[in-house]
């Protein structure tokens, strides 16, 4: 495998081994370890515990009340109880020259261990029976529940890799060790602040006597998040931006509303941070000849599909659940296809990216003019993507870690640490090469691949804009064939599974799906080239009446429906535990994405030329334009916001389809509102300033700086 890996990967991409150095989660870099150490005092700990037990049973009851009970719904997969986080940290009382305060700690109890009970003369001899029987007997599981728990641990591990999170408490599975054998029950305890966790457990619960093996997790105290450079930078930058917004908006309202001056006479640069003007630009739609109106609807629906998928993914990786086994059962069912197949929507955006690149460029410049201004071609693209992405990276590394708190805050803290250490690969759009498993903003792998495809696009675009149709067609088809052939050979050599997660045992021996397939530009490029081909077709047909017989239109729609449905359906069998068809996996990985892209491209063509009927009416409705214009900021911010909200939970959530839909609606509304704020604060002002300083026509900058059709960020998912 190593020889194959080197042979096929080196021409495609290089994963820098040093990129993983110092990126593993270390909570001491996010929480004040000195604070924890300074408060420890064994003598004070014993004195406070003695006082509480003898003299203040009521206060002692508050400590006991803030601890965990035994995790509820254990047979449904719940191994976590979060106790009373706020109640514990809210304990504070001064008595007898002592300041008694609460400290919240999480501990783990391995499910399988030699347990010496006080009333037993000998340990339980687990070694005399099989691990499987121990697991089932200890947990009182039926065979079905035991298999489901095994599947849960396997799928959680895969999802952790899929989203770039590697929490220490992920229950790993190997061939030699049963996954449940390494599982632990995690619960909370509330102890006096001077006590170390180990001393408190020994003094209060007498664990040295019982011999119960308990592993220390982490402890939390009030105000234990030290301020770092990123925090000061974020506060300074956003304070300046807020001040500029106030000044610019005041200037704008004074001249437009109070003095009633002609907007054309107002200094455009002084209006760049105006909330009033930028909001007008956002909601004002001016018809543009040749605009592809249906793209706003496609972009909006695709964005909603992305949020739905991420809502369910974050259930398993950042929010404790009362019934994770029921969620796993749902994910294996046929009715979850709209969730498990949501990853295919990324290829919709790759398609739009390639399509718009050709459609908006061809006929406007020549090949030599393109090469002459190649630096501006790249610079404009980079600068249009950079501001919103940089704002999110800075917030994730700083204020998102401070804005709230909770017993499950470790997931948010880890994201902050990853952004503090690997922010620069993200801003250079190389995070899929440098640190794919430890990305800052793990979902931005898409931006990296999209930007990398944009970097190589002039090799094709030069021949397409040359004006010779034959040369253009040869170049476009050659690029698509090269992508398909290269990715097919690579997939068959590597032998990946056919999805981001699967319950099949055979998938355990396969190469890492996320690092070597999901974020690999080679295997993700074919939808981009399919989009380029259809972008050229739409360019050739622009302004022309295309007549297609009704029978052919019906046949094409039927074919598109069958193919797209097949692509979605294939996510159902491959997730099943008995799936073991590697050849099918390789074919799915090689051709699923270009087939989906082909179906989306046909839908766009049919909408533009009047062969989509009510579908075109729905997708072209003006109500989607705002979402289309906000889609880039929605994509960048929605996922870290989900992790943040999940980190504030105080009790494990209960999964149900109804609650999942409610949570999706909440996530969607939050993403829209935050995207609007980010657009007003960062995107719209930077758009005006960039166009001004790059010498773009001021009139163009004034009319539609946020146009859903002309904005190069529109295709981001």
Q: Could you describe the 3D structure shown?
A:
This protein is mostly helical. The chain folds into three domains: 27-220, no CATH class; 229-278, no CATH class; 285-703, no CATH class. The protein has 34 helices and five strands. It has helices spanning 2-9, 33-38, 42-55, 57-65, 85-89, 131-139, 143-162, 197-205, 207-210, 229-258, 275-283, 294-318, 324-332, 337-340, 345-361, 367-372, 374-397, 399-402, 410-421, 423-427, 431-434, 445-456, 458-464, 469-494, 513-518, 521-524, 526-540, 550-569, 571-574, 582-608, 614-619, 623-647, 657-693, 698-703; strands spanning 80-81, 92-95, 98-110, 184-192, 215-220. Strands 1, 2, 3, 4 and 5 form a five-stranded mixed sheet that branches. A hairpin with a 2-residue loop joins β2 (92-95) and β3 (98-110). α32 crosses α33. The radius of gyration is 28 Å and the shape is globular. Residues 1-23, 114-153, 158-181 and 697-717 have low confidence and may be disordered. The chain crosses the membrane at residues 232-251, 298-317, 337-361, 382-400, 445-465, 472-493, 522-541, 553-575, 595-618, 630-649, 669-690.
Overview in brief:
The protein is built from 34 helices and 5 strands. It has helices spanning 2-9, 33-38, 42-55, 57-65, 85-89, 131-139, 143-162, 197-205, 207-210, 229-258, 275-283, 294-318, 324-332, 337-340, 345-361, 367-372, 374-397, 399-402, 410-421, 423-427, 431-434, 445-456, 458-464, 469-494, 513-518, 521-524, 526-540, 550-569, 571-574, 582-608, 614-619, 623-647, 657-693, 698-703, and strands at 80-81, 92-95, 98-110, 184-192, 215-220. Strands 1, 2, 3, 4 and 5 form a 5-stranded mixed β-sheet that branches.
